[in-house]
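## tool: complex_structure
## caller: assistant
## args:
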Amino acid sequence: MSPHDGELERLREEVAAWRAVYGKLPLREGVEFTSVSGRELEPAYSALDLEQTLGAPNELPGQYPFTRGIHPTMYRGRLWTMRQFAGFGTAEDTNRRYKFLLERGQTGLSVAFDFPTLMGYDSDHPRSEGEVGKCGVAIASLRDMEDLFAGIPLDRVSTSMTINGPAAILFCFYVAAAEKQGVDIRQLQGTVQNDILKEYMAQHAWIYPPEPALKIIVDMFEWAAEHTPKWNTISISGYHIREAGATAAQELAFTLANGFCYVEHGMARGLAVDAFAPRLSFFWDVHNDFFEEIAKMRAARRIWARHLKERYGAADDRSWKMRFHCQTAGVTLTAQQPMNNIVRVAYQALAAVLGGTQSLHTNALDETLALPTEESVRIALRTQQILAVETGVPNVADPLGGSYYVEALTDQMEREAEALFAEIDAQGGVVAAIESGWFQRQIARSAARFQGEVETDRRTIVGVNDFLEEERAAPDILRIGEEADRTQRARMARLRAERDDARVEQALTALRNAAVADRNVMPEMLDCARGYCTLYEIRDVLERVYGAYREPVFF
Amino acid sequence: MSPRTLSRPIRVLVAKPGLDGHDRGAKVVAAALRDAGMEVVYTGLHQTPEMIATAAVQEDVDVVGLSILSGAHMTLFPRVLQLLADMGRNDILLTGGGIIPPEDIDVLQAKGVGKLFGPGTPTSELVQYITTWAAANLDG
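## result:
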């Protein structure tokens, strides 16, 4: 990649001369040529910028450290999975939306739960009032999970579930639902997000304090490796960290640091790294800054591979390969002129594919106003299909590999991430830095910087602080009424009346005993699910053993 | 117009009711109001309406701002409004923002909730609204 010395010297002179010419030319006034994350950018890049590159000179796709993708074939072998995140109302409502999406060519399911479910409350718990089915689907027991997937054979779809605090419980509902369908659970494919560390940092759907929460996650690593070997036990997520305000480099570094923390906890249990690392997956936000996002994903793969191999001693190449999902950045959608969001999403989707993603959710144009309508999710899905079959982009792996700019940015991202890892270590590690609020402050500071740039017009958002228009009527939005709440309450009442109370008591007691004895809680939790114990009953038993998390409050 | 038209700073409680964990907006707003010279208390996440109304009275604030992105606004705003009235404090301005459809805003304002702000609103607009309200409604 780097030319030999004589050539390099000549290039250095040429670039210096070019710089001198560039410096005399007028530039657009009042424009800061920085990335969305505030990164200073050169006016152009050349081979000089790759003189000290961290990349391997002749690396090819599918080769360690996987900068250029995890497969030699990339999208020639298999397209990314088109996976639209969906859920609202009751299990029956969402079951209908899933069938709508599958019939239109979607290739994987992704469950959005409502806030009570995300926090581990039953639909009829007092804290759930007003929130049932509003931001996702309400799932409070195995009964709801059975109805969510009625008519959808669980050995033939892959399902992603965005659930963290009570992830193990919802995973048990899913496994139990598969058992009820008569499916071999070894064939189950999918992912639970299960990334509690970023909950403390950004997304905030937590239940227990970090150490017991990490213990339950390692229980899942251990149990799933044996019983559901095709299941991804965690999706280590930058998405929410970025959406909360982090820069691209912070998203990259904080997320990877969380990944290392999970690896270390698994190894501390005595698990062999290659026994669980191949089932760890990742989730990135795809923001507006096109090349910065692509570089972020390339750097992420490389850093993960290097640390897993060199620092943690993984020998299985599946442990080195970072597989990830992407979602276009919800925070970039504007309520003003919402149709413009279609265009934003299309550019972000292109960046995700050029970055080598394994699956993708494209946001719908109206998601800054409400949950999306059928019409708007259809456009979002079609955006991916047009990219996949009309643009020619999937024909060639890592088409930007070798671009001076993209390679230099990839290097820069890796260096910045390593510097942030050192800062996190200096804070006492991930858990200590969460407890002190260090991550939360870093993220809030970046959010405030961005807002300040927009408000002082140093950063332009079309339709928000420039190119304004008299607002036309808002598009029709999906409205979730109180119907779901009433239906869910009736369903819960019926469940509580019909189930075997003695079985419930016995299963919950067994779970409590497992937690007190510090055993792996998964077998007993699965038995609670089978016996129709509710989400909150299971959460509550463990909370009495493990305690509750209290956030450091600041602004 | 600045908050200095009062002889004391305006006191604001920024609150996150319900189970919604999205606090980017609440924190940006809290910081902006503080930078505008107001005294700001932030509740942290996952507060019940009872916790918020009690904090508002105990902290003796002039304004309560709720941030709701969960769709539960039609339950949470009226509940906080009612609790403040029950405590004899319907002099406190209840305002807020989040993902709230325009027709819901109309209904809430008819019940006595103040102005509600949507995505993309500059923080200067909130400062302007609160200082204008304070000049017209607060003594001292």
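## assistant note: Residues 103 and 109 of chain B are 10 Å apart (CA to CA). Chain B has a mean pLDDT of 94. Handing back to user.
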